[in-house]
Design brief:
By secondary structure, the protein is mostly helical. The chain is built from eight helices and two strands; from the N terminus they run ααββαααααα. Strand 1 and strand 2 form a beta hairpin. It is globular and about 45 Å long.
Length: 240
């Protein structure tokens, strides 16, 4: 059997998801609608710390998600360098993965369903504050409902919108992190990293920005190929 080809409308869905993201930034009341999505990215960020701790032989002890959409993960053992790096880069990579997989026909519902299951497991196994527990259940339920009920085209757009949100929020947070690292602020991943390898926090923040952009670029390359194919030889007039 032939492998399914990427949806011809995938590029259109990606552009629409990006346009919606940008438009919502300029609508003041939209922050309320985007709040659950912001928390979704926080769960992915903190879950990435926990996953890396486990993969490197350590232990993820607890996750706390705060009402301001910040959070922290307590771990023991493992490789601190990889654990600290995993937060922002993990959120970017997860968003990029959603964008990559959502190109394939019939996968959007699967992505939404898996995301719902992952948030539910993370919530029930590691989240230890009432706010985080409640919102984790709500987000997981919303994702599972979307996976089950949305038509294919709407599921594709939803998965891509969530992927864009993951990447955009991670990049925005990294930009903020650069400013905090330069001018001072609360303890951040960049500050923790500078305690492991003594480079200024701003250097780590900038390096992570570069890596996040590289991850995003890799995810967008297939869309670029689709766009160039659409305007390639098949679209040129042929003369006899």
């Amino acid at each position: 059997a032939n492998a399914p080809v990427p949806s011809r409308s995938a590029l259109g869905s990606l552009l629409l998801a990006c346009a919606l993201t940008v438009a919502l930034w300029f609508i003041p009341v939209a922050s309320f609608a985007l709040y659950p999505l912001r928390l979704f990215v926080t769960f992915i960020h903190e879950g990435s710390h926990a996953l890396m701790a486990t993969l490197t032989g350590g232990l993820a002890e607890r996750i706390v998600v705060q009402p301001d959409a910040s959070g922290y993960t307590l771990t023991a053992g493992g490789w601190p360098i990889l654990i600290v790096m995993a937060g922002y880069l993990g959120a970017t990579a997860y968003g990029a993965l959603m964008l990559t997989l959502a190109r394939r026909p019939g996968t959007a519902r699967v992505i939404l369903g898996i995301s719902g299951v992952l948030i539910a497991l993370l919530d029930l196994l590691l989240v230890r504050n009432g706010f985080g527990l409640g919102w984790g259940i709500a987000i997981a339920a919303g994702l599972l409902a979307a996976a089950r009920l949305l038509p294919a085209k709407a599921a594709e757009l939803t998965a891509m919108f969530l992927g864009v949100q993951c990447v955009a929020n991670a990049l925005y947070d990294l930009k903020t992190l650069v400013g905090l690292s330069v001018y001072g602020g609360p303890v951040s991943d960049a500050v923790l990293m500078s305690r492991i390898i003594p480079l200024p926090p701003a250097v780590w923040a900038v390096l992570w920005c570069g890596l996040a952009l590289a991850i995003l670029g890799a995810a967008l390359r297939p869309y670029w190929r689709d766009a160039t194919k659409a305007g390639g030889p098949s679209a040129r007039p042929h003369h006899v």
